[in-house]
Every structure is written in structure tokens, then in C-alpha cells.
Write a structure and sequence with these properties.
Helix content is about 55%, strand content about 15%. It has 5 helices and 3 strands. A 3-stranded mixed sheet has the order 1-2-3.
């Protein structure tokens, strides 16, 4: 087992190498607008998981996944050449769920904004059931004590 810092450094380097190789060397027409978002390496440095996102619809995502699988050998040899580790890690490509999660959060925020606007619309022109500010303030207590005190001295 190696230390986690070395695995993280290797993962960062793999992410850069894979992204640059996809940009410069891989000319597969199925490969769409792919972004390498993260890479993780196991503790023994034998396997690397590369996370990616694809801009487009489901058909383009499937085509890009197939292109990445077919280019896996070229990418692995380039990773081995540029990292210089004794054993080049095997690469596994996983579609990153981050965009889907972000889209879900945005939808929930839109619903919350709509509810807030609805409450704001209903409350327009309404008044408070009691006083606007039902809390006592220290100035009110002093003014009330002074008024009571003045009434007692007048007697």
C-alpha cells in the first residue's frame, strides 16, 4: 500500500494526461464534448477511475462512452509514458453524476422560489395580527418605569 498523497498526486496527473490526450490525439468522431472532471486511484495504484461528463443528449453520451472505451488502450499507454510509474494503472471510465445532481438541485430551488413568490403575493397588503414588532425593547422598559415613577412622586 502506498500513502494517500501519492495516490492523489497520481490521480491528478492521470486526469491531466487523459484530458490532454483526448484533446490532442484521439480523433474519434463519436467523441463529443467530453470534460474529465475527476480521477481516483486505488491505494495500490493498480486501478484508476476517471470521471467524465458529456455535453449533449443521451445518444451523444452513449457514443462518447463507446469512444472512450475504444480509446482506453491509447490513453493507458499515454498515462504510463507520462507518469513513469512501474505499473500503469488500468483505466475505468465512469459518467459523472454531478450535472444531474446539479440539475435536480436547480429544480428544487426553482420550486422554492415559486413558493416564496406565491407567499409574497398572498401577503401583499396584509397587516400583522398583533403589533408589527411584538418584542419588548429596553428603551420601552425604561420609558415605562420613568412614567410610573413620575406618577408616584406627584402624589
Amino acid at each position: 500500500m502506498t500513502d494517500k498523497a501519492r495516490a492523489r498526486k497520481l490521480a491528478d496527473r492521470i486526469q491531466v494526461v487523459v484530458a490532454e490526450t483526448l484533446d490532442r490525439r484521439i480523433k474519434d468522431p463519436r467523441l463529443g464534448f467530453v470534460t474529465i472532471t475527476d480521477a481516483r486511484v486505488t491505494g495500490d495504484l493498480r486501478e484508476a477511475t476517471v470521471f467524465y461528463t458529456v455535453y449533449g443528449d443521451d445518444e451523444e453520451r452513449a457514443a462518447s462512452a463507446a469512444a472512450l472505451e475504444s480509446a482506453k488502450g491509447i490513453l493507458r499507454s499515454e498515462v504510463g509514458r507520462q507518469t513513469g510509474v512501474r505499473h500503469t494503472p488500468s483505466l475505468a471510465f465512469v459518467a459523472d453524476a454531478l450535472p444531474d445532481n446539479a440539475r435536480t438541485i436547480e429544480d428544487l430551488l426553482d420550486k422554492a422560489r415559486a413558493k416564496d413568490a406565491e407567499v409574497r403575493e398572498v401577503s401583499t397588503g396584509k397587516t400583522y395580527a398583533g403589533e408589527a414588532d411584538p418584542y419588548r425593547k429596553p428603551e420601552d422598559d425604561e420609558a415605562g418605569a420613568d412614567a410610573e415613577g413620575e406618577g408616584e412622586t406627584a402624589e
